[in-house]
């Protein structure tokens, strides 16, 4: 080897040695910052790109739409049914009996929320949901065969017990999603519920008495004389075990009192006020629209009221698709607060709509104002999916998730059972008095809704995430 080649080789070795020495003497804090930065970016990328398990989620969404469908199904024909089976002879007395059956569904749901949540913690979510849906289908079918008032009560109460599994469905969705995709999924959860509400009453009205509506389809008559037949149906129940069940087996339920932290109590309080406001509008608007104009209403026919409610539901469904992008941009709490702040305006629209009717303004102007009212109402409904996410995020641990959703279901069902009777009675009392020219109800509701809106501004974001513990348990 020549001298020149040796020098080049030695220079190359020295250069490599210098490079290695510099890399060894580099500040280790810089490496740590790079690692943390890389991990942070990787975590952020994972957070924004978690795929939704649509196969399981779609089943839950369909089942969620079935429950409101079964609940709304009886409303079109319940009054006529009570007359036909001979419960009462006077149509004016029907309301007393139909009201019991209509509210019984929500009352039984309220009573069975806690047992359903405890059972789902012990035996799994899937058995609770499947058995509840089977009971709901059975009770709905048997209700149509009712020939006495007590049988109507029993079958309706049976269906109400199955509605308590709604909180279990929300738990399953919470365990199937994370913070990156829960907004999209729970928005669709609300859409599925709205679709069930919309389809329930038309199906019940159109399919009641099919032998009359489609008499040509029933051509074969029974030729044998009638006689009483007593059937005994033996029903057997089986139990099934599935690896797909999300709840851990043989795990004791979390004490319910342990989840009542100040943060959770504040959220539940806001949830109850939100449900009170939402149910107020559902109960008040049909009565307000039916009431004659001179008594403070709109003087609409039943068909017009049905059209109004259908348009409102359609607008609300479209607005539900805004929830996911808004939740990603502003966060769950901010969306909830924004939607709660519009509720006072929905109350203020009632006297405004009545004034427009009294002034006999053009139909185009009135319909435009009514459309704006429905849009504001629909935006307020975004508080429903937002509240579901807030309840899920506030759970202290994965084991307390079922308890949290069970308690939240109680906070939902209780106002649903009380609000309609309170609001309609207060409306009747208000228009019968001369106090504030019959508008006292709107003052009471406006003040209460404003207080609810102010309270929601005190809510705070959760400081912990139970999904971290849930992921660690799954890895173990």
From TrEMBL:
| Record-level Gene Ontology MF annotations | transmembrane transporter activity
Database matches in SUPFAM superfamilies: MFS general substrate transporter
Q: Where is the Major facilitator superfamily (MFS) profile domain?
A: 56-464
Does the entry feature the keyword Transport, yes or no?
A: yes
What keywords are assigned to this protein?
Membrane, Transmembrane, Transmembrane helix, Transport
Its record classes its membrane topology as: Multi-pass membrane protein
- Gene Ontology CC: membrane
Main localisation: membrane
Q: Which PROSITE patterns does the record match to this protein?
A: MFS
Residue spans crossing the bilayer: 52-74, 94-115, 127-143, 335-356, 368-386, 407-429, 441-459
- Protein location: Membrane
Pfam families of this UniProt entry?
Answer: MFS_1 (PF07690)
What's the protein called, per UniProt? Answer: MFS general substrate transporter
